[in-house]
Amino acid sequence: MRNLKSRRYQKNQKEQISSTNEDGILLPISDKDAHCTSDKTIIEKLLADYKQHKTPSELGVSVGIEVWVQEVNSINEITSDFDMDIYVTELWVDNALRYDHMNPCKYNLSLSNEILEKIWKPNTCFINSKMAKIHQSPFTNVFLMIYPNGTVWVNYRVQVKGPCQMDFSSFPMDSQTCLLTLESFNYNNHEVDMRWLESPTQPPLTLLKENIQLPDFVLTNYSTYLTQVVYPAGIWNELTMTFTFSRRYGWYIFQAYIPTYSAIFISWISFVIPERMIPARTMLCVNSLLAATFQFGNIMRNLPRVSYVKALDVWMLSILTFIFASLLELAVIGSLTAKSDKAAAALAASESRRHSSISNANSSQAPPSPKLCHHNARESSPHSCRLYGSTNTDPRAKKRILYSPTDGTLMPSAASPTPRQPERMMLIEAADDPKPPIWRRIWRRKRRGPSKPWTTEQIDQISIYAFPTTFAVFNILYWGYYLTRPS
């Protein structure tokens, strides 16, 4: 037992203890220093005459700031902020806490936050934070270390919520920028000169994890800069951290874009359905329109209300426009089909009446011969004539004349047979005007335009090629613009 105590004593006596010279360089304490000052004694001596509210130097104090990012917890688009856990390091020199002349047993003192409350601090704060608190798991996460040359090193583990400059014009292919700004709340830059703690090997802002990813975002860039802000009480140094998050839009591809692709493809099926199946074509287009509208509202419900147009707005409104155009095409097809049915019914009724009148005429008396008609026409009029139903279709050459089957004479339509002479009137056509000049016919043909109307089959055939082609051009322009648009 005596030998064990002797070995321990010798080990304590030979322990290397460092001190610093006036230039701040660490120097080993020689082994001949048989006695060293304990931490408790050093703290009691340092705090005995220490003035907590006095700035360590009348010429001002230079405070170095360093930040380590532990984790990014969340990004909220509705409230435009982000939440993260960070370590904030403050480093300054306080000559009143110098103890290298006291022959310390250690070359640094690791102390609790209770000692920190008794010494001077630069009162650094997040000037733009919405919330900031020091972790209490399970105790206050504050680290304090004092070096023999009076250098004070303070480290806080903080949860902070800061603002984000949200811009949704490229949503969901957007990138968001979030900021955190540090400054001394009580001292301007003449008293406390706050600077980023630069070093050749380590930047002032460091990530403790290689990749910081969230379900919706991934941290793509971060940087620091210093600005000077003028207040009525003086000029303050502001240290700003910038974090750039790019959205992971894979979820929106599956939840927004692919369903709308399906909706617009389904609306195009109506182009190959026969034009007589109007209810089926209407059901496809209307269901596609309702599905796209519901999908659009479901996504927009989780986003803030902004007054500008987002990339997803452009997409959804274009999809609705294409589906609405399919409905318009269906309306044109329905209108042409109704007109065709109406014209067919009118033609069938006209043919039925014509055949009925011819049957009645044939049953009562045989029609006159063509020779008699031409002979009588020469006697009564210098123009030629023919029976109703002949091949003369010029509407300008029609004239109603009466034909008397008893004597084969012709008379104008203004003349009426006497009651004493029962006669049967037949409608014939007479060419009373000569053919108009050729220039007039060409002019009338140009004014009338194409006389052959479009059929429903032609419109459907054009739509089958026009709609997909236009949609493909829109996709090239849309994705080419928003995927290459700078953030």
TrEMBL record:
Regions that span the bilayer: 249-273, 314-333, 462-481
- Would I find Ligase among this entry's keywords? no
Q: Which PROSITE patterns match?
A: NEUROTR_ION_CHANNEL
InterPro entries hit by this protein: GABAA/Glycine_rcpt, Neur_chan_lig-bd, Neur_chan_lig-bd_sf, Neur_channel, Neuro-gated_channel_TM_sf, Neuro_actylchol_rec, Neurotrans-gated_channel_TM, Neurotransmitter_ion_chnl_CS
Biased amino acid composition, Low complexity = 357-366
Species, as recorded: Panagrellus redivivus (Microworm)
Q: Where in or outside the cell?
A: Cell membrane; Membrane
List the biased-composition ranges (Basic residues): 1-11
Please give, as recorded in its UniProt entry, the membrane topology of this protein.
Multi-pass membrane protein
Residue span(s) of domain Neurotransmitter-gated ion-channel ligand-binding: 40-248
In residue numbers, the region (Disordered) covers 1-20, 355-393
Give the record's GO CC terms: plasma membrane
Neurotransmitter-gated ion-channel transmembrane domain location, by residue? 257-479
Gene Ontology MF terms in the entry: extracellular ligand-gated monoatomic ion channel activity; transmembrane signaling receptor activity
Pfam short name (any one): Neur_chan_memb
Q: Spell out the family assignment given in the record's similarity comment.
A: Belongs to the ligand-gated ion channel (TC 1.A.9) family.
Lineage, top-rank taxon, reads Eukaryota
What's in the keyword line of the UniProt record? Answer: Cell membrane, Ion channel, Ion transport, Membrane, Signal, Transmembrane, Transmembrane helix, Transport
Name the UniProt record assigns to this protein: Ligand-gated ion channel 50
Where mainly located? membrane
